[in-house]
Amino acid sequence: MQPGLTGISETMLWTLHNRASEAARPDGCLRDPMCLHIYRALHYDYERHFGHADGSHGVRSQLFDEHLRIFLAAHPRAAIVNLGEGLETQRYRIDAPEALWISVDVPEALAIRERFIQPDARHLHVRASALDTAAWFGAVPPGRPCFITAQGLFMYFSEEEMARFARALAQRFPGAILMFDYISRSLSRRTLSKHGWMKTPYYRTPPMPWGVNRDELEPLFSRWLGQPVRVHNVTFVFPRGPLHWFIPMSEHYLPWLANHFPGVCWLQLPQEGSSGQEPVST
């Protein structure tokens, strides 16, 4: 089965490549038979485009899973909104029989997803850009605790789009948890340069306009949302190899260096009249 994807949508095959490499390992950080099924069913030269698989996206998914499981333990009937979900198979890794899952992605991405993963009463698909808030805000039932995720998405927005989007989320979903990954300013500049970020001689990543360093996140979101907002770093721990030790040690002993790493974080969108400083349990 040929995926026939280009541009930003094609990046979901990059993340699939890396997640599947972890799922296939006996010592991998993910157990994900559905991921492996999709990976093997698509006729695509992953190695040629993306090079040798690494554990980065498997670790990223594991981090999101861990935080979502904790949230669901406290809020089993939550609404889980996965923005730009692509071929992520989180719903198969997490047992949440009372939750409502909402996958928001552009039509070409959901068309590939639905070759393998069908929506139903508890798993909704919304064909829209995450930025098209009018298209998906109404799919989230009012009154449910809400956990919003964005894996491999926000870096493709401009900073102005991110600011407007953050304000819209805070207005519509006060108190919700927003968890996302981000890239550094230097990596963003690389993707925007004349030669771009070439993963291999055959694949250039799409431009990633929004780069931000870790120590900028809290003041940035606080300014966007008009009140203090606490942004929580999630340490990116590889399951093996030098990075397993290097990243945690850098965060502890070399924070100035860690500020320039790509990362994962979460925050609670402020509630009306709150300071945004006391997040709900995750």
From TrEMBL:
SUPFAM superfamilies: S-adenosyl-L-methionine-dependent methyltransferases. This is Class I SAM-dependent methyltransferase. It is an enzyme of class 2 (transferase). Its EC number is 2.1.1.-. GO terms for biological process: methylation. It comes from Ottowia cancrivicina. Keywords: Methyltransferase, Transferase. Coiled coil: none annotated. GO terms for molecular function: methyltransferase activity. The keyword Cytoplasm does not apply. The keyword Methyltransferase applies. InterPro entries: Ppm1/Ppm2/Tcmp, SAM-dependent_MTases_sf. Gene3D superfamilies: Vaccinia Virus protein VP39.
